[in-house]
Amino acid sequence: xxxxxxxxxxxxxxxxxxxxxxxxxEPAIIAKARAYVGPEAxxxxxxxxxxxxxxxxxxxxxxxxxxRAAMExxxxxxxxxxxxxxxxxxxxxxxxxxxxxxxxxxxxxxxxKWRQTLLGTAQIKRLRANTWExxxxxxxxxxxxxxVEDQGAVTIQGVACQKIAFIHAPDIVFYRYFExxxxxxxxxxxxxxxxxxxxxxxxxxxxxxxRSIITATKNAKGEMVTVTINFEKITVxxxxxxxxxxxxxxxxx
Length: 253
Prior knowledge:
Blueprint: H1 2-21, H2 28-37, H3 40-44, E1 48-59, E2 62-76, E3 80-86, E4 91-97, E5 100-107, E6 110-118, H4 121-135, E7 147-156, E8 159-169, E9 172-179, E10 185-190, E11 195-199, E12 202-204, E13 207-209, E14 212-218, E15 224-236
Antiparallel strand pairs: 1-2, 1-15, 2-3, 3-4, 4-5, 5-6, 7-8, 8-9, 9-10, 10-11, 11-14, 12-13, 14-15
């Protein structure tokens, strides 16, 4: 009697442990989305991506009024990111180095005029999530303690899509809408209501990249600000020295 009683309990306990240890099954659309971007070998071999282009910001009160800046963006494993925007009036650098983040603003005409700050925990978490999103191609978020959730079929701009949530934290979520027929990324939105659209394409090392990214987010006044980045050059797997991302010493550059 004792043996027959314990055996089903042991089986149930083992099943419970397995259910905790095993991650949720990957939504089928992710494999299709990755295949649309590029072959598995190419995607798995990405260690860095370097974008060079132009940043265009529209005035929320008058879309015809625009400001421009030269833009350089670097994502590099593990958890490194550097974004530099250079205009006639300002050089702004935002960078991530693992669990450290910083921002530096400098007058391009006078190197003695600068301001540097360390980023807070919330900003660093978002930069880390953004770096993962740009290097991992939709797979493996569980390894950084995130999760992926299939939120069902939806129609975006007349296109049948599958909505997938990439959840880095309750306050850091990327909702991506993939075309069911092809796996193409149609649209992205964030938990805060911001939107991201990709236009055009550029093939680099067998990987499909957008030629432009258009983001729309609300500013402190509640106005919708549209920012467009047009890429002129994209390079994969350059190797950047750690000092590119490390917090710089205090002083003019």
